[in-house]
From TrEMBL:
Enzyme Commission number: 3.1.1.-
Keywords for the protein's UniProt record, in alphabetical order: Hydrolase, Signal
Protein name per Swiss-Prot or TrEMBL: Carboxylic ester hydrolase
Family of this protein: Belongs to the type-B carboxylesterase/lipase family.
Lineage, broadest ranks: Bacteria, Bacillati, Actinomycetota, Actinomycetes, Kitasatosporales
Enzyme class: hydrolase
Signal peptide interval: 1-29
InterPro entries xref list: AB_hydrolase_fold, CarbesteraseB, Carboxylesterase_B_AS, Type-B_Carboxylest/Lipase
UniProt organism field: Streptomyces pseudovenezuelae
Domain Carboxylesterase type B: 34-517
Highest taxon, organism lineage: Bacteria
Pfam families reported in the protein's UniProt record: COesterase
PROSITE patterns in the cross-refs: CARBOXYLESTERASE_B_1
């Protein structure tokens, strides 16, 4: 009886605390307050624009002090407000937003205020940013939640050195993969709690773009993630990883750069450093298209390199939607904006060696428009070959490997030739459909205000396609062009207006000259574009 009384008193205290939190929310921010009970306590969210929002909910304890470079631990208990975003994880720049702190393991839940008698499917979004930037609050899930009547979860995870450092003695589990452990902890929180928000824990689809897409492939390859999701979406992401040896070498170089090179005291020295000093040390953990952090394979949470896991079929076989933009790396080729024909050809020689003449025969400088012919040419060959696992022939081959074991695999290319972009480019430079520009068609963005009527229709179609996949494990939806599985020999070309259509896979292969690329031996870009341009003698401005 005493234990029952204690529990009832504890519940009353939580309720009173919650009421205090709710009353403190400004009416302009919370037109209608909401209370939901999670396994750690009650949260008070708010409704706006027909969407219930629960923001800044911790899914794990702050990874600070002794928790820095440790697996995520149990989170808070008690009642709390959920009407503002949690801090972003440390990164070079957060722009405008909720600020930055190592106390950053928060997630957000969006769901339509419309309620049904049955639990709703869930889209669990993992942000991109090269594993060095980004945050869940940058991906407002309200549009998909309202349009498709699904629950959307967005999540923060540790970035840069805080998520990927691997030095001997750092922790008993997770060194180099704290980001992956964070994502799995957030998925377990979702499994335990999403029912309270109207979601179906048995129909969770993980999704991510760029580094978020890399994360999805890692989760598909991670034994501890089994059963945490039922579907997956990879947007402009691949399956790259580092070996333990590579990660340790990078970690030791970083420790030296941070002034903690003595092996016996390296870990304690690093843990004693302030956040800003750890950020300032850099050392391969602050980004870089080819040199930034990556998941680490050969450990319990990721026994096989994700690419190997896919190739050998040792992954979680769930329905998959996968695709990329037509001109993934066009903007990353800007270091070649001022390159001459000779400098372009020198760069191709540096990258492809004995095969350079064959590559140049397929991508001659003369085939591209001035004054940016070199940038267009090198981006075209990178888009067709492989650039960090994004797009092109190896991306089509990756999709085929998935589809060989999972019939419900769907492939797309975002082909809008002129989507709005926030990137700064030289006057007259045609960015095409570059990396990440499809995101503005799936979520509210400032750039969406400049969508043409045809682009608005494409945006609406994409939101419905993605929603249909989350709900039915197939993107095909009434009133839109049918989207067959990749095993049918077709993929979806996403175009403005009502022009999106399923095309034969051979169209994609011909567009990217895959008969050539699949017939030679080559690897991805081995250095950053700016460094390659400098090696080729291209002026920096």
């Amino acid at each position: 009886m005493r234990s029952v009384v204690r529990r009832e008193l504890a519940a009353l205290v939580s309720l009173l605390a919650l009421l205090t939190l709710v009353s403190a929310v400004p009416s302009s921010a919370a037109p209608r307050s909401l209370t939901v009970a999670t396994d750690k306590g009650a949260v008070a969210g708010a409704t706006a624009g027909g969407v219930d929002r629960f923001l800044g909910m911790p899914y794990a304890a702050p990874p600070v002090g002794a928790g820095r470079w440790q697996p995520p631990a149990s989170a808070w208990s008690g009642a709390r407000s959920a009407t503002s975003y949690g801090s972003r994880c440390p990164q070079a720049s957060t722009g405008t937003g909720p600020g930055m702190s190592e106390d950053c393991l928060y997630l957000n839940v969006y769901t339509s205020e419309r309620r049904t008698d049955r639990p709703l499917p869930v889209l669990f979004w993992i942000h991109g940013g090269g594993f060095s930037g980004g945050a869940g609050d940058l991906y407002d899930g309200s549009r998909i939640a309202k349009t498709d009547n699904v629950v959307v979860v967005t999540v923060n995870y540790r970035l840069g050195v805080f998520g990927f450092l691997d030095v001997p003695g750092l922790s008993r589990q997770g060194a180099g993969n704290y980001d992956l452990l964070d994502q799995e902890a957030a998925l377990r929180w979702t499994q335990r709690n999403i029912g309270a928000f109207g979601g179906d824990s048995g129909r969770v689809t993980i999704a991510g773009e760029s580094a978020g897409g890399h994360s999805v492939c890692a989760l598909l390859s991670s034994p501890p993630a089994r059963g945490l999701f039922a579907g997956a979406i990879i947007q402009s992401g691949g399956c790259p990883s580092l070996t333990v040896a590579q990660a340790t070498a990078k970690g030791e170089d970083y420790a030296a750069a941070a002034g903690c090179s003595v092996p016996a005291t390296s870990v304690s020295c690093l843990r004693a450093e302030p956040t800003d000093q750890l950020m300032a040390a850099g050392g391969g953990f602050t980004g870089g298209i080819r040199s930034g952090p990556l998941p680490v394979s050969g450990v319990p949470e990721l026994p096989l390199a994700p690419g190997v896991a896919v190739r050998t079929g040792r992954i979680h076989h769930v329905p998959l939607l996968i695709g990329s933009t037509r001109d993934e790396v066009r903007q990353w080729a800007l270091p070649f904006a001022n390159a001459t024909k000779e400098q372009y050809e020198r760069a191709v020689g540096l990258e492809f060696g004995a095969q350079a003449d064959a590559v140049l025969a397929h991508y001659p400088y003369s085939a591209y428009d001035s004054p940016y012919a070199a940038a267009y040419a090198i981006s075209a060959l990178w888009d067709s070959s492989v650039f960090y696992g994004l797009g092109g022939c190896q991306y089509q081959n990756l999709t085929a490997r998935f589809a060989a074991r999972q019939p419900r695999t769907y492939f797309y290319e975002f082909d809008d030739p002129h989507p709005p972009t926030l990137a700064t480019t030289p006057a007259g430079f045609d960015s095409g459909a570059p990396h990440a520009d499809e995101l503005g068609y799936l979520r509210p963005l400032d750039t969406s205000k400049s969508l043409t009527p045809g682009q608005q229709r494409l945006s609406t179609a994409m939101v419905r396609y993605w929603g249909s996949f989350v709900k039915h494990a197939s993107p095909t939806t009434a009133g839109l062009a049918a989207w067959p599985s990749y095993n049918s020999g077709r993929y979806m070309s996403l175009l403005p207006g009502d022009d999106s259509r399923a095309l034969k896979s051979a169209v994609y292969a011909n567009r990217h000259q895959c008969s050539f690329w699949n017939g030679i031996s080559y690897d991805g870009l081995t250095t950053n574009p700016d460094r390659l341009a400098a090696q080729a003698g291209v002026p920096t401005s």
